[in-house]
Structures are given as C-alpha cells and as structure tokens.
Amino acid sequence: MGLALLIKTFLVQAFSIPSESMQNALQKGDRVLVDKLTPWFGGEPERGEVIVFHDPDGWLANEPVTEPNSVQRFLSFIGLMPSSEEKDLIKRVIGVPGDTVECNGTGPLKVNGKALDEPYVFPGNTPCSPDEGGGTFKVKVPDGKFWVMGDHRQSSLDSRYHQNDKNAGMVPSDEVVGRAIVVAWPPTRWSTLPVPETFDQPGLNAALGATPGVLGLAGAVPLVLWRRRVTARRTDG
After folding, report:
1. Which residue among the candidates 16, 19, 21, 76 is catalytic per the annotation?
2. Which of 8, 16, 19, 91 is an active site residue?
3. Which CB contacts under 8 angstroms, 24+ apart, belong to 210-216?
4. Which residues of the chain have pLDDT under 50?
5. Nearest 5°: phi and psi at 228?
6. How many Å separate Cα 2 from the centre of its chain?
7. DSSP class of residue 163?
8. Residue 203's CB: how many other CB atoms inside 10 A?
9. For 197, phi and psi rounded to 5 degrees?
10. Across-strand partners of 15?
11. Fewest Cβ atoms nearer than 10 Å: which of 34, 61, 181, 184?
C-alpha cells in the first residue's frame, strides 16, 4: 500500500479520459498513465505533448460530478483511477512560453509563423473554426504558461474558448499534473503518445531563446526517457 501511494504521489498515476475532445488519439473511457516525476526535476511541458492539468479557472464549472462507489474510491486512493474530487483535463500542448500561436478561418494552425501539419486532428475537423467564441485567434504565450488544444477541434473547449478567464486561456505551469505517456486500458488500445513530427520542423524555435538545461538532471531516471519521444507505434489520428 505504501509503495502504491509513493508511485501515485511522485511517479505515475492513471487518468481516465472523460470526453471525446482528444479523439482519435484518445477515446472516452481510455485510461492513460501520467508521468508525474519529470516536473520534480524542473522539466516543463513541450509542444506536442499530451498533458493532464488541474482546472485552471472554472473550465469544468458546468460539468456534472459523479459520486464514486467504494471500489472506485479504493482505486483512486492507490492511483489506479483519478480522484473524483480532482477536476482535471487532458489536452495537447501547442504553445510554450515565448510562442506566438495563431489560426485564421479554418487554418492552418501556426506557431511562430510556421504552419503545423496535424494528422492527429479528428477526421473531418479543421485546425480552427471561423466562430466568434475563440475559433480564430492570435496569442503570445507568457512565461510560466501554456496554450493547449484538443485534437477533436470542433468538440474541445480548450484554451481558445477561455481567453476571458484570469489566465487568458493559458494553463499555468503549477497546474500541470504531468505528461500522458501511455494508453494503458483497455488492452486493445495500448499505445504510446509520442510527440508528432510537425513539432520538430526547422525554424519552430526561431522566436525563442536557448532551452533550459535543467532536464539534464533527470537523465538517469528511466521514466524521464519517455518525456520527448517514444519510438513504439503511434495511435491512429
């Protein structure tokens, strides 16, 4: 029991996908494993990573809360299910501190002037939407915050639609739980969640300074090796 609590607190925790906002990479009901260790070594989310984060400012205010049964309470206690008291979300990081993220009409989505090739976007969706709620935008990501979006673009109330909150739609770094690294359940859905190749394109970092070297401290820790890229097969979409 003590080991399970240690793992839950510092290493890895299961998280159940609550909606269709990350299809097709993640389906509602999937369970992913979240790396909680890397932030302890000064690591920050990178573009393209799928992260779990606490509700920044009422994003889930209107979502119903289901009372867990005794089994679910036990599983959340040992880290195999998220706590029903925690209001967490899961999205893909698009912009990191210093980035300019923009999208006009139906796209493409651009980071620092570079258009992203986004095969992970839900089939039939466009990178952004010409709506007044936030589908068309241009933002500069401040220090300590991140711009996140769901892969199911026309079914995701992400950073675009919370630009009037106290964080201007950004996710503060201290609200990030960790990076989702593996789809662990159901077994037929097992897969890793690597960073899409489009985020490695030349010139994407042109607007940024040198990257922090703090992550080097984590090099000896096996879980941190998952942080940038996993070479196993990708999920569909």
Report:
1. 21
2. 91
3. 212/42, 212/44, 214/41, 214/42, 214/43, 215/38, 215/41, 215/42, 215/43
4. 1-10, 78, 80, 83-85, 209-237
5. -90, -50
6. 28
7. T
8. 10
9. -60, -30
10. 32
11. 61
**Gap between the Cα atoms of 190 and 35, Å rounded:** 16
CA triple 24-226-39, angle to 5 deg = 100
Count CB-CB contacts under 10 A for residue 106. Answer: 14
Q: Given phi > 0 = left and psi -120 to 50 = alpha, else beta, which region is 101? A: beta
- For residue 168, which of 145, 189, 192 has the smallest C-alpha distance? 145
pLDDT for res 18: 86
138 is catalytic: no
Which residue type is seen at 213? G
Separation CA 137–CA 94 (nearest Å): 13
At CA 132, angle to CA 123 and CA 47, rounded to 5?
50
Q: Quick one: which of 110, 172, 179 has its CA closest to 139?
A: 110
Q: Which of 190, 180, 123, 185 is nearest to 152 (CA)?
A: 123
Query: Is residue 114 annotated as a catalytic residue, yes or no?
Result: no
Q: How far is CA 4 from CA 131, 166, 194, in A?
A: 46, 36, 26
Sequence-ordered list of residues with C-beta below 8 angstroms from that of 25, at least 6 positions apart, any chain:
50, 120, 151, 193, 235, 236, 237
Paired tokens of 69: 């049964």
User: What rounded mean pLDDT belongs to the chain?
Assistant: 79
